Amino acid sequence: MPGTLPDGDPAPADGRLPEESARSFGSRPFGIYVHVPFCRTRCGYCDFNTYTATELGGGASQAEYPGLTARELDLARAVLPGTGNGVETVFFGGGTPTLLAPGEIGNILDKIRAAFGLRPDAEVTVEANPETVTADSLAGLRAAGVTRMSFGMQSAVPHVLETLDRVHEPGRPAECVKWAKDAGFEHVSLDLIYGTPGETDDDWRRSVGEALSAEPDHISAYALIVEDGTRLAAKVRRGEIAAPDDDALADRYLIADDLLASAGLTWYEISNWASGDSARCRHNMLYWTGGDWWGVGPGAHSHVGGTRWWNVRHPSAYAARVNEGVSPAQAREILTPAGRSMEEVMLGVRLADGLPATALGGTARSSAERIMASGLLDPAAYRSGKLVLTRQGRLLADAVVRDLT
Amino acid sequence: MSDPAQPVPKPGRTDQAVIRNFCIIAHIDHGKSTLADRMLQLTGVVEQRQMRAQYLDRMDIERERGITIKSQAVRLPWEHEGTNYVLNLIDTPGHVDFTYEVSRSLAACEGAILLVDAAQGIEAQTLANLYLALEADLKIIPVLNKIDLPAAQPERYAEEIAGIIGVDPDEVLKVSAKTGLGVEDLLNRIVDEIPAPSGDPDAQSRALIFDSVYDTYRGVVTYVRVVDGKLGKRERTLMMSTGAVHETLEVGVIAPEPTATEGLVAGEVGYIISGVKDVRQARVGDTVTNSAKPAAEPLGGYDHPRPMVFSGLYPVDGDQYPDLRDALDKLRLNDAALVYEPETSTALGFGFRCGFLGLLHMEIVRERLEREFDLSLISTAPNVIYRVEMESGREVRVTNPAEFPAGNTPGSPGDGSAKTNTGGKIARVFEPIVKATLLAPSEFIGPIMELCQGRRGVLGGMDYLSPERVEIRYTLPLAEIIFDFFDQLKSRTRGYASLDYEPAGEQEANLVKVDILLQGEPVDAFSQIVHSDKAREYGLLMTSKLKELIPRQQYEVPIQAAVGSRIIARENIRAIRKDVLAKCYGGDISRKRKLLEKQKEGKKRMKTIGRVDVPQEAFVAALNTSGPSDNDGKQK
């Protein structure tokens, strides 16, 4: 969850959806995101909507959190016309979802099951910081119905972890992967961050190498972005550390892509690599392909049939609304046809599956030809009716999107 | 005139013998407006509770910058030794850009107060205006102000002033305009020392226009000093230089608000309103007469304002072009010296090439356009006017460097690519020059001479005003002065030097046009005419500046500086390698979309030169830093 909420239109207090959005519910895959807004400590680079215990007041404590999610799920059930085809994916993100006990996560899953039904092949992912899990807790999560773990490894290099304020020991993520596999998890992912101030190309190679040697079936690698309002941004502003350099970020991306590809993980989205189709994160794919999802928790974003909304950010404000039986939505946005097609291009072009050329209008197609000529789109894919970025194109994806929309 | 029962003289019926017309010559911050304020209070025309600082400066810009742009004339009653006198204070603009206006204000007076800060001594422009006043045969009353300041050195500067105007140091009056100390004495000395006007009250009427101001409600208000005869309130006036005839709607005096009167007689100062809508129809320096009984000869000294400095003004938002045109049309009503004509730039779009009296004039116009008309503008670096003689004998006047004829130097082959290649080779190029006077503590002689030599200056002479202060005279190309000269002078002399200059004709010079090319395409807004010895320096400056300002594109972009077809400097903007948001934004699709939409908007606002997208801000930044300094060279 990002730190800043976009502007939008007012959302109705009862959470009701526009008729045309509600009507089509069930015709697309449906997922649920559960935002767990707690962390033990706040990392200097992070602008996500999360709070340490001391930052929280009235009615929003960690202990009461599962109860609040149950109430919002009741609201979701009342607002949505039916259960669709059951829930395909659940994603516990944060914050640090593993600050909840496995049993609490299990209770939330039970609630989801009761409200909408959970498909037998559903993907249930939990994000975790390596220092917050043990072999036992992972076994507990697996037993509670979680199918996929995603560990925030970020780096294998001590000085990089220190700059990022990450508190785990460098070897811990590999251990977590092993424990998870032992607990019966088929899908395990590691998250990495590149471009941290002070990180060298060799540091990065080492991080990717160590991540690979733990043998997860999925790796995400994100560039460090200095977000306004973070401690990191303050340090950059004061000149204490240098902002990540774009050329260095490009180099790191290519290093990662080379190492991951040669280890058998191929890219399926600009920042995501998987060992095969079944190892892709289905929940994220749902985001990127126009699926429906309900985001539960403070600051969580939802989308159903062309309507996007987002909840109030602060856990106390969220708790107050939910306890009063009022929709926690702060604002919403009903996408225009232009907005929808912009999003389709913006999200679709980032995928290895590519964007169908039929999604483009006339002028965008001639732009696409030009972009292909400059080496950013794959010609073979284009001939078969798809826009797929080349490696250079992936690094310039935003420019491609701007030219296509 | 010693009859104690004599009443306060009425405007339109005032005997010349009791009139004293004077102005104040002073540098910025030496206290002219404060002294005027004090005089308004002492003579009782403004009561304490109505008083505001800088009472006579009407424009916001005047108050903020502490300068006087428009003249004012205020009628002050003053009783001295039993006689009621009328003192007309004519408030003059005091900047090197407005020398002509100053000279006309001086011509309306018989005397001048030379006001000098007792802590700082005389400054170059004050000296220049003092010389103008002496030439006009004005009686000078030397005054040291701010004698209450701890840093004041009245004895030392009294000596200096006395030396310059040739009086005894004891004759220099010492006042504090702030506390009012000595101001009463000064008013008495004005009566005693400044001669009364001596025009012919019975002759055909002749009045000198020393300013005209456009007022939205009343049309043009023309400030005049009647020299001969009488201007009545129901007459038709004739402007002697243009032959234009106007019905007089109102005649009056400023006391200190406009007050209508029956008329104005010889020696008096006041205003005329005649329904004129444009200050060009009531030009400073022109002579007003009665159209029914016109004078045979105008008063001397009329001159047409000539623009000296040119700059292209463009709206940042191209849609504002019509607004810019309307705004210029409106400003022109009040500014007879402003000239402009439409011009098109491939880089900046539609705009105007504007001519100004000087840098301050340019800054003021720009600031008023932005402030009063809510426009956002880009201006090109200021340039002077060049006269180019072609070998064919044809002559070209260049006010926009981009239009400098191809074939830069005599004998060098033209590259034939410039749109203004009018055929033929350049025989000779002439540039305007000025005679500059610099005043500074003598320890700065070295740095000043070094600066002036570096700017192609020719030393004209040097005089010590006192053992510590020196006057240095140089002939300099005007182009060198408008390019960063004030800033350099200020920094090399720690702010102690002051500068004045006046046009001194033209000289032939080895000048070339430097073009700046982006990916081989010339960017007209960056073309500049410079001395051939400085071409490379300019080229290096602009290419390195642009390299920092233009964002990286998807391909490498060469930035070159060229004289004709010869490349004299080159930089490269490397191709961008990463333009992607590689961060996990979870389900917040809206944020990502809005970010991209914002970037698309930003791209729309860019100007495309060839294939290169250049943000508006890059033009602004690249053009701005070489602009004029901000507060130097002004005086009030």
Explain the overall architecture.
The complex is a heterodimer of chains A (405) and B (636). Chain A has 405 residues and is α/β, with parallel strands linked by helices. Helices cover 39% and strands 20% of the residues of chain A. In chain A, the strands form 3 sheets. Chain A has a 9-stranded mixed sheet with strand order 8-9-7-6-5-4-3-2-10, sandwiched between helices. In chain A, α3 runs parallel beside α4, α4 crosses α6 and α7 runs parallel beside α9. Chain A is globular. The two termini of chain B are 35 Å apart. Chain B has an 8-stranded antiparallel sheet. Chain B has a 6-stranded mixed sheet with strand order 2-3-1-5-6-7, sandwiched between helices. Chain B contains 14 helices and 35 strands. Helices cover 24% and strands 33% of the residues of chain B. With 636 residues, chain B is an alpha+beta fold. The interface between A and B is large, with 45 and 26 residues.
